[in-house]
Fold this sequence. Notes:
This protein is α/β, with parallel strands linked by helices. The chain is about 40% helix and about 15% strand. The protein has one domain (about 15-245): NAD(P)-binding Rossmann-like Domain (Rossmann fold). It has 7 helices and 8 strands. Strands 1-8-7-6-5-2-3-4 form an 8-stranded parallel beta sheet, with helices on both faces. The model has no long low-confidence stretch (mean pLDDT about 95). NADPH dihydro-nicotinamide-adenine-dinucleotide phosphate binds near residues 23, 29, 199 and 208.
Amino acid sequence: xxxxxxxxxxxxxxxxxxxxxxxxxxxxxxxxxxxxxxxxxxxxxxxxxxxxxxxxxxxxxxxxxxxxxxxxxxxxxxxxxxxxxxxxxxxxxxxxxxxxxxxxxxxxxxxxxxxxxxxxxxxxxxxxxxxxxxxxxxxxxxxxxxxxxxxxxxxxxxxxxxxxxxxxxxxxxxxxxxxxxxxxxxxxxxxxxxxxxxxxxxxxxxxxxxxxxxxxxxxxxxxxxxxxxxxxxxxxxxxxxxxxxxxxxxxxxxxxx
Length: 257
Ligand code: NDP
């Protein structure tokens, strides 16, 4: 696996770029949205909790970033039609998208496969995988308008090697890796869009706390501390890098989500 966690991003790395971040209201997505904005991008904040998205919007503006946009969407219930409407609106507002970070995700339950609730399974696949597929389908034509576009899918160590009890979460991340590889191969040499996956590694967020309730969060890196690889992949220094699996930090064997 590749890692670029020592990457030093120039201050204006993403100047003039329009970047969409899903799950931008909290955790890693919130940090990524703020970090991309701090490096010059205009951010489209996508998520389900408007109050939290508004707080991120304010933080970006207060820090002197370009005025972001908020696009509320609940991935559990969003339909093909909603993604089509999203594409139409973003086309009118921006004309082109230079980057998407598919980041929103839920854990589901830690349960053996034979006892896993089909309802929870569907919910996890919907939020972690189907939504990213449908949004990508809807927005790809807007990315084709960019001279240098980057599509990042968020993976996990359990999306690269299966682990007991991680059920739908793990399978959703394997599916995400498969989509990344397929799309990267389809777009290779015929577009300006690069497609890669990124495993954040154990990071101090609500999801991590849910998965490992007994863990001391102070032992983990914060989302802000793992942004180097996100910036590398979103910016022009990764031009030509396509179909690769990245890690945002050195792996802690068997304890990453
Ligand atoms: P958090 O739980 O902190 O944040 C998840 C984000 O996804 C929130 O913004 C949340 O919105 C959003 N989200 C959840 N459900 C929906 C939905 N139905 N519709 C729209 N948005 C939704 O998680 P992390 O920041 O930890 O995780 C981010 C990504 O990184 C995930 O894909 C996760 O699998 C992956 N990851 C995380 C690791 C870690 O150690 N933290 C390790 C490996 C991978 P809201 O604020 O409204 O809840």
